[in-house]
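Researcher: Following up on the earlier apo prediction. This time include the ligand. It's zinc ion, with the SMILES given after the sequence.
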Amino acid sequence: MPKVIRGMKDILPDEVSRWQKIESASRDVFRLFGYRQIRTPALEETALFVKSIGGETDIVQKEMFSFRDRGERDVSLRPEGTAPIVRAYLEASLHKTSPFQKLYYLGAMFRAERPQAGRMRQFHQIGAEAIGSPDPAIDAEIIALEARILDSCGIKDYILRINNLGCKDDKKRLSRTLKDALTDKKAMLCDDCKRRLAINPLRVIDCKKDNCRDALRGTLKNIKFLCEGCIGHFDSVKALLDILRIKYLLDPYIVRGLDYYTRTVFEVSHSRLARGQDAVGAGGRYDNLISDMGGPELGACGFALGIERMIMAMGEGASDFGGGEAYITAYIAAVGEAAHKRGFGILNDLRSAGIACDMDYEAKSLKAQMRSADKSKARFAIIIGDEELASGEAVVRNMATKEQRRVKLEDIVSSIGTPCHD
Ligand SMILES: [Zn+2]
Ligand SMILES: [Zn+2]
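Model: Understood. Below is the ligand-bound prediction.
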């Protein structure tokens, strides 16, 4: 029998209601904050990600599903949402209608990492990008938006860590300082980090290997690399977060494993997730990405939440968030061919009236059909047999109270649809 590919997962009907609730709660929050949805393809040119995320990042080096297509083009399944959205923003010249755009997305991302709890090769993200403004209020709004989505999904006790990476020049200074500090300890570093030290020292901070982490210890504390503008920007972001009463920790080790970030970066973690991969969401400002990709000089900021991780952070206690609700309003139990035909017509009339309903398609006994009605969590069962057809009245049973009454076949839709039945 064929099996699902390693690192990929089916989301079965029993789990899917939780997904739908997360998605719809997120959409409501995005609407509240004035963000509009954008959908980009799963497949992009590989060069897009190499240029934007950075050639020395783990994502580009080890984790992309990249291949040469039949037309000899190098393509990759998207490992993240920001670069494709900036590409679409520039390609559609959205900046010409209005430079400032607030966009959100929901979708599958792909990374060929070693599969483990909370880390799938196809995973799903909810994210937002506010493109076109250098205002620190946008950094604060993006963080508030992410927090509001977590709150609205009932996720509590998450920890927000923020850091200031500074502008391009500041990052260069940080890179140089880090290189100097680590050159003495080069022997401790893994082979990847030895190479990174020469090409892109900041990426050493992403390394999960113990030796590299030991070598890094203490190196980032008290480094002065930020310019006045970036210090002022971050001070404003912090002051705005205080106004919004959003709690945060300052963490100089939050650098995010992507080259395009500048100034504010942040991560939201949760103790229900395993150490080292406890991030439920993350994001930051990327003030050079748009111009680096050939567009105008525009500031931007965004975040992404992992849906699989959000579900883990919810824990078992969040059973009220998804599952358990009534699936349909009415179940038609029809016995006999003629009754089944008439019932099928009523089914269609109910659906046309916007009433969710279903019926038996396996010619089961009345008893078995009533069990199906029960299982379907329908509020009403509509029972039709030869006798009901002859009298022109169906039996409508309230599944909770067991109360039954006879309703004319032509009145069923209005009878089920009126609130007096509740
Ligand atoms: Zn700066
Ligand atoms: Zn390393």
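Model: The radius of gyration is 28 Å.
Researcher: Noted. I'll compare it with the apo version next.
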